[in-house]
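FW: tagging you since you asked about this chain on Friday. Here's the raw sequence from the shared folder, copied in full. Didn't touch anything.
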Amino acid sequence: MSAPCIALIGCGAVAETLYLPGLRKRPGLARRLIVVDPDLSRAQALRAKLGALDVAADYREVLPRIAGALVLTPHHLHFPITLDLARRGITVLCEKPLAHSAAQVDEIIEASRSHDTPVLVNHTRRLFPASREVRRLIHQGAIGELQEIRYELGAPFDWPAATPAYFRDGRGVLFDTGAHIVDLLCWWLGAQPEVVDYADDSRGGTEAVARLTLGWRDVLAHAHLSWLSKLGNTYSVVGSRGTIEGGAYDWTSFTLTSGGRSRKVRVERGWRAYEDYVGMLLDNLVQVIARRAAPLVTAADVRAGVAVIDACYARRKPLAEPWYDAWRLLFPEERRVANG
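HL: got it, structure written out here
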């Protein structure tokens, strides 16, 4: 089967860091790409690295030539471009987050349905063997009644971003890396939980640290996210008869404690590079375009996570940072002068 012609839209860090390695392993697909970016110099550079078919400054210039598209643009462009492509009958693989709100996701779902056009989303943590096995054990009741989930993910922000788009719209770590974690929590729960509490350090800007608590039935799910410092990068799933504990980047194993005994569960012995998971999505996109497979992750699948994130922002409150306001207590006179 010959590779379909696909537009790669957006030539920033996501394309360079995540998709370039996977596409290089698929030269037949790479040679059929049309690379799209308003900065044609970036498009030309990526085209040269991949041996791609052509370049363009605007994806609308190439619509008659393509059967699918990779939407790898800054976050705020995911929704309008994906919606436009779906309405034109072009199959899409969009980077996360798919949209700002559940209402926007619903528009994409409706366009996908009415135009019989699949929309795929990159939520690779759903593909990790450990994540899939944890979900199976939860729903199988292997650790009893689910009681609590805790997840923390944090490291200093060092993404080689090509634009300042990560710091616009007052949406930061929760909308970025948090999109993966919130989606994972919803997927493990099998439901859209309510937001019990949400706080971040935005203070009117873009948050770099966020804490949230979600509730579903009698289960609480807590997440701690940071762009400022390295956290433990671990998760725990607590049930009435056992506990699952794992590392956020340990994709193939975790520790299961039950009956007072702990054991290491290895779901898959081979270690995969992240590009291999992106490769799975690329292969799935090609198969979906040919109508030979169902999407691994659809727009409808990720709706709950998008809705939860939007609800968090709607009720955001300041994170407790006593050190931030300490000077007000130490120097009350200076505070009065500063306030006029």
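FW: The radius of gyration is 22 Å.
HL: agreed, and The domain at 6-122+275-301 is CATH 3.40.50.720 (Rossmann fold).
FW: great, closing this out.
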